Amino acid sequence: MTTSAVKSRKFSILFDWFDQGKDGQLTQDDLLAMAGLFAMVADNDPASTAAMRDAFEQWWQLLLKHGDTDGDGQVSRAEFIAAMEANVTSPEHFSGAILAIADATMQALDTDGDGVLSRDEYVGMAGRLGVSPVNSAAGFEKLDRDGDGVISHEEYRQAISEFYLSADLDAPGNWLLGPLDRSV
């Protein structure tokens, strides 16, 4: 698989996950629905919920600005992939649009403040976000880089960065939503 094909595949899987209306177009409602799913993960943590909603709104604004090439207020799969590759994952947008969600999620799930996610916490979170337990359990094994039985905040951020930025087909971060050869 070429560099471009690896990223396109990941962003296509992400598109399918975000397309909550299952109509082949992303809208603001789709991203608001995703923010709602992530807010449920935050389990009534107002600061994390607000951070997630703000980050998804920023993401939507970037998609509209850079991806909605026909001005219809929706983003097609092709527009999404192009916008993700060229703009959303660029250094000036990546932290505010993507890592902010990861950080808020980690903060919400790490209720004891130890800076790590256990296997059960990770698989439970992924399940609430619509990722199958089989895929999230396999993903946990890949993301726990040091094999200590937990995913640290740094390991989680590294996985997020790899999923969005790496063209390496074998990068552990590619397992965030399960294997690349299957959908969420």
TrEMBL record:
* GO MF, any single term: calcium ion binding
**Alphabetized UniProt keyword annotations:** Calcium
Tell me the InterPro entries matching this sequence: Calbindin_Ca-bind, EF-hand-dom_pair, EF_Hand_1_Ca_BS, EF_hand_dom
Q: Which residues form the EF-hand domain?
A: 55-90, 97-132, 140-166
Any keyword Metal-binding?
A: no
**GO annotations of cellular component type:** cytosol
The record's Gene Ontology biological-process terms are: regulation of cytosolic calcium ion concentration
Top-rank taxon, per record: Bacteria
Would the keyword Calcium be found if you checked this record's keyword annotation?
Answer: yes
Signal peptide positions on this chain = none
The name this protein carries in UniProt is Calcium-binding protein
Q: Which organism is it from?
A: Streptomyces subrutilus
